[in-house]
């Protein structure tokens, strides 16, 4: 065993990454906060959109008939307009030969404009009881409605039966609808119609307290005395018939401009207006009815304050002013903010839906491509007659960079000493402070040489090891990794092909008894190894794992050695070899056992570095997109696949889970759950096939559903965090993970 110690001298200048370490540390917290804020904004947009899309269904009555006791008989027998002037409940009836057209459940982008067009053409006003969520989604229709001279009332924000709600919920339903009206048309209103209400004789002990409460707040509740029942879609003639009051009585007539297919309503409405005018009826609003009632009780000679609106539609200006109030101050600004927030949500959800389709196609396409190419790779490399050429038997240099690896270094070196292939072991101690070099020397293994250097980082340690290597084939590994006896022999056989410049081995998780280890085990087998089989056949392998990789020494030197420009020196050197014209292959039988991070914090740190380093390497080698010939194959094939499958798709993949949750809450729980289970089933199929190829035990797949719910979400957040860091120009430093030495020398024990 030989020990090489560098001469004492001036400490090297720090690299760019090291110089930026302090600044990077200070910048990480704002970036995490930014990522969380973006996630929060997306969540809020989806929740708002889901809340707004509590679509209006049919107006099936929840209760029929009145309960005796609380409701005064004069109210039950009274007219359709209920007021609480002076604190006393009073009803108002529609005068004879007068029709107050009312419309519920709008505005609807399809039907409401058509209703407004009919009313305008016939010079007839209407009173529209609007659902606040629909108002916030279609403010332009409401604005047109008010400008045309119609009046509006509140039909709650989510079309909920207020009789079963708390006082707080009732207050929110009313206030939110008022804000929507303020933002849409700059007004508020005092008119109210309860969802699922009908005539006054249907007021019961559940709903009466609600009307009393709203009456104290200044609201006028409007009921129906003639119902067209257009929601039943009985045909236009039936709708006209049912909406016609008996004899010459006046009526508050109910139609619908939303909540379903209203084609029959659109067909019946002009016929109805024509019929009623022929019978001598005039049309007015609820406010017009109230003004006529006041006019009939006004002392003789008092001013009426009535302005004409067409020849048969008198509407009192004072009444309209009483129903509609101009929104000002906080109400107006909050209303506009609500409309803006809804517009953003309305834009966000369709955009994300398109992204979901793209992501879904990409994910399924990737699964299909991996399965097909992995199967072909396995058959090709495992057939009896396959060979790379004459067996490679010449000695190999194994380089082990080590920084504070006292828990693992002994197991690593002992496993290498059992190699069935002739090797020399070069341990490069990168300024360890825990006695790693001393432990390596104390083992007394004749194949081991220890090279000490001041702490300079893993790339520098690997380059130093390559300079001290005696042989032209070098194997690079991590100081916490354990090799099987045949690993090196399998790993170097592809070098029989002179086109092969590097070989990626099969990295395995050794401490898979832990939850994180089991999750990473699934990821390594399914994701990394299936990917490597696919990329091998496509001749665009993006990464040789740092835990196990073999290189031609001349190829590494030709590419400039391990670069310190990125945090993913393994990806960097792999792409550089491609661009130098070398072929990079995957050797599935060369297995190495590595230790997964022991905590979520360490896992985050590791994957954050991997993700960010990969982005650095791709950006550094963006010139490969224009390379020609064999050296440009990575740019033409590998670069697009890596960007699509390792960056773009994972960044947007959370849409699948977000929309699943969205659908479970706001759409259809059963259908959404079945869709999620279907996607999980496809992933389980891929994972099972990957486990079969690697001859792994299937019991670990029982952890996969939990992995999808927890581990995968964390990986998404890590990647998003890395993207934000890259976009904001941040830098990271190499972060040493704490090791326990759980992966022992008995490599391959499952």
UniProtKB/TrEMBL annotation:
CDD domains: CESA_like. Pfam families: Glyco_tranf_2_3, Polysacc_deac_1. Residues 97-284 form the NodB homology domain. PROSITE patterns: NODB (PS51677). It comes from the Bacteria. Keywords: Glycosyltransferase, Membrane, Transferase, Transmembrane, Transmembrane helix. The chain crosses the membrane at residues 352-374, 641-665, 671-693. Signal peptide: none annotated. Belongs to the glycosyltransferase 2 family. This is Bifunctional polysaccharide deacetylase/glycosyltransferase family 2 protein.
């Amino acid at each position: 065993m030989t020990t090489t110690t560098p001469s004492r001298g001036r400490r090297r200048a720090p690299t760019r990454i090291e110089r930026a370490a302090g600044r990077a540390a200070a910048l990480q917290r704002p970036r995490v906060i930014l990522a969380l804020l973006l996630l929060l904004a997306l969540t809020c947009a989806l929740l708002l959109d889901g809340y707004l899309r509590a679509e209006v269904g049919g107006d099936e009555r929840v209760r029929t008939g009145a309960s005796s006791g609380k409701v005064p008989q004069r109210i039950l027998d009274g007219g359709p307009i209920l007021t609480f002037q002076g604190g006393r409940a009073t009803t108002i009836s529609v005068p004879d030969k007068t029709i107050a057209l009312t419309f519920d459940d709008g505005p609807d982008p399809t039907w409401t404009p058509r209703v407004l067009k009919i009313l305008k053409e016939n010079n007839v006003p209407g009173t529209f009881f609007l659902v606040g969520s629909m108002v916030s989604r279609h403010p332009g229709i409401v604005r047109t409605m008010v400008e045309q001279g119609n009046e509006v009332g509140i039909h709650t924000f989510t079309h909920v039966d207020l009789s079963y709600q708390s006082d707080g919920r009732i207050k929110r339903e009313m206030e939110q609808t008022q804000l929507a009206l303020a933002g849409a048309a700059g007004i508020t209103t005092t008119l109210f119609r309860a969802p699922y209400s009908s005539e006054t004789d249907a007021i019961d002990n559940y709903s009466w307290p609600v009307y009393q409460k709203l009456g104290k707040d200044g609201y006028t509740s409007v009921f129906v005395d003639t119902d067209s029942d257009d929601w039943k879609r009985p045909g236009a003639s039936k709708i006209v018939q049912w909406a016609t009051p008996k004899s010459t009585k006046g009526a508050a007539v109910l139609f619908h401009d939303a909540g379903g297919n209203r084609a029959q309503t659109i067909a019946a409405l002009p016929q109805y207006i024509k019929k009623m005018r022929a019978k001598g009826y005039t049309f007015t609003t609820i406010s017009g009815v109230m003004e006529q009632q006041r006019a009939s009780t006004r002392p003789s000679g008092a001013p009426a304050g009535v302005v004409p609106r067409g020849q048969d539609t008198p509407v009192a200006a004072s009444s309209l002013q009483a129903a509609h109030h101009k929104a000002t101050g906080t109400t107006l600004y909050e209303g506009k903010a609500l409309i803006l927030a809804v517009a953003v949500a309305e834009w966000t959800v369709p955009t994300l839906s398109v992204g979901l389709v793209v992501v879904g196609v990409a994910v399924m396409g990737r699964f299909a491509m991996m399965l097909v190419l992995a199967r072909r790779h396995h058959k090709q490399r495992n057939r009896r007659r396959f060979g790379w050429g004459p067996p490679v038997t010449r000695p190999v240099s194994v380089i082990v960079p080590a920084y504070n690896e006292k828990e693992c270094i002994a197991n690593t070196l002992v496993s290498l000493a059992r190699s069935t292939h002739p090797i020399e072991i070069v341990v490069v101690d990168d300024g360890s402070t825990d006695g790693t070099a001393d432990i390596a020397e104390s083992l007394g293994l004749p194949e081991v040489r220890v090279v000490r250097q001041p702490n300079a980082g893993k790339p520098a340690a690997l380059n130093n090891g390559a300079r001290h290597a005696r042989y032209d084939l070098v194997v690079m590994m991590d100081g916490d990794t354990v090799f099987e006896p045949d690993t090196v022999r399998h790993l170097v056989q592809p070098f029989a092909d002179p086109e092969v410049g590097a070989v990626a081995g099969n990295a395995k998780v050794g401490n898979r008894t832990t939850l994180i280890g089991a999750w990473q085990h699934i990821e390594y087998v399914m994701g990394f190894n299936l990917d490597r089989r696919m990329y091998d056949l496509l001749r665009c392998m993006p990464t040789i794992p740092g835990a196990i990789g073999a290189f031609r020494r001349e190829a590494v030197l030709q590419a400039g050695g391990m670069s310190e420009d990125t945090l993913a020196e393994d990806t960097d050197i792999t792409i550089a070899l491609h661009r130098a014209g070398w072929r990079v292959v995957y050797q599935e039988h060369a297995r190495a056992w590595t230790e997964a991070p022991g905590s979520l914090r360490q896992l985050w740190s590791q994957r954050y570095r991997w993700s960010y380093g990969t982005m650095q390497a791709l950006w550094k080698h963006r010139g490969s997109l224009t390379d020609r010939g064999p050296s440009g194959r990575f740019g033409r094939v590998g670069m697009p696949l890596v960007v699509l499958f390792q960056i773009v798709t994972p960044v947007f993949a959370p849409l699948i889970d977000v929309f699943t949750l969205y659908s479970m809450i706001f759409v259809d729980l059963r259908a959404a759950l079945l869709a999620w289970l279907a996607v999980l089933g496809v992933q389980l199929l891929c994972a099972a096939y990957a486990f079969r190829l690697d001859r792994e035990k299937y019991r670990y797949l029982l952890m996969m559903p939990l992995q999808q719910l927890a581990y995968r979400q964390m990986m998404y957040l890590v990647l998003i965090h890395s993207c934000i860091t890259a976009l904001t120009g941040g830098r990271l430093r190499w972060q040493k993970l704490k090791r326990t030495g759980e992966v022992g020398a008995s490599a391959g024990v499952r």
